[in-house]
What does this fold into?
Amino acid sequence: MTSESTTRVVVVGGGFGGLNAARALAKAPVKVTVVDRKNFHTFQPLLYQVATAGLSPGEIAAPIRSIFRPYKNVEVLMSEVTGFDLDRRMVRTVDNALPYDYLIVAAGATHSYFGQDEWEPLAPGLKTIEDALEIRRRVLLAFELAERQAAAGEAETPLNFVVVGGGPTGVELAGTLAEIARHALAHEFRSIDPARTHIVLLEGGPRVLPTYSEDLSRSAEEQLRHLGVEVHTSTMVTQIDPGAVHFAGTRLPATVVLWAAGVAASSLGKKLGAPTDRAGRVLVQPDLSVAGHPEVFVIGDLAALKDEQGRMLPGVAPVAIQEGRFVAKVIRDAVQMKRIKPSRPAFHYWDKGSLATIGRAAAVAQFGKIHISGFMAWLSWLFVHIFFLIGFRNRLLVFIQWAWSYVTYERGARLITGSTYLPGWNASTQTAPAESPRQEIPAGTRK
Ligand SMILES: Cc1cc2nc3c(=O)[nH]c(=O)nc-3n(C[C@H](O)[C@H](O)[C@H](O)COP(=O)(O)OP(=O)(O)OC[C@H]3O[C@@H](n4cnc5c(N)ncnc54)[C@H](O)[C@@H]3O)c2cc1C
It folds into this structure.
């Protein structure tokens, strides 16, 4: 155990930012408490693989407690943080209050429905393991219900899957759904043809992957079309009903609608009492601390900080990881009295490049001026993601799963668990609504 005088560091969140901060403090003369409402760390970049039945939850998650087993000065508490008392230096949780000398808040982000929260049950987003399992349930269930309906001799329901949002998550979901429909499920149904599933990707802006260069956006769109995805850019969704999506004056019947359009910072940001931006991210100082509280840091998706060129740092794992390590060093230096003066360096993000996957052998990669598309980009994506997965066991398992599914096209985690209800599908008769034939999309909005 640690002595009374040991500096206490509380880390809120065991995601990329929190884990890396706590790890970097593991050998420092401090007592670290990591608080997370979950008992596991989620490797979010592979959530879409769980949502599309390629991987199982345990392969992309790791118990936070076991990650810190070797670090005796780190304790893990599974609890929900509800607020802060910055004057008394306390973190409030649903159970009690935790005192701190330094606080690192790394509570991440969630979905934003731009004020249309009633769309959430109709169009789930992808942020947690639970979200991924719900998406997997809906996608697989749609094929089963359609098969049952067709086997009963009723008119075949056109299977339309709509993904809203053309950022990296929307693109990888749409591409992988197209692959499932055309390959993984082919030859397994007797009354329907899964290959006739329509995958529609709707993006409000003028191009998919807007944070990538224009040539890579174009390439991503081509690769999506090649996989059979219908892409609509500059297209805003105006309404989502059970079983339908409205856009550009059109009502498109949709068996499954997925939301990948908006991100909002954790509500804990506002509870710090510091200024926030429109997405609820805390406007931090250059050293990632909160104005007026040099002992409180906010990192990762919850922090808003611009780089030297005045561009907002993106909400990606490498930013959260580097920020976590940076604040840990600031705390270590302060505790070890390396810095006599309280002046601190500013955080500098080292951008090593961006990768977005689209589907089997389809991806884009941007490393500074080097832009790659297709198989080589996909290979880079594959190895980077295996390398950064937590735990040797998960790396090995994911590598084997991907190698197997590359050769066989199989997706091994095709389990439907929980409810057999699908929004818009007639629950009593288990058939699609009678008025669900697809209305033509006006020519002007087709690409
Ligand atoms: C589907 C998806 C795909 C992505 N793909 C990529 C990618 O390919 N490459 C990339 O670089 N980035 C990707 N990202 C973004 C990346 O995952 C995030 O930038 C990163 O996770 C941010 O780290 P963080 O530590 O700020 O937050 P998170 O990793 O989200 O961690 C936040 C933690 O805080 C906990 N928490 C939240 N609120 C509370 C509370 N009140 N009390 C206690 N605990 C709480 C949560 O349980 C969670 O463990 C993706 C994100 C998603 C959702």
About this structure: The chain is about 30% helix and 25% strand. Residues 12-18, 35-38, 44-45, 47-48, 80-81, 106-108, 126-127, 168-169, 266, 268, 300-302, 315-318, 320 surround flavin-adenine dinucleotide (CB under 6 Å).
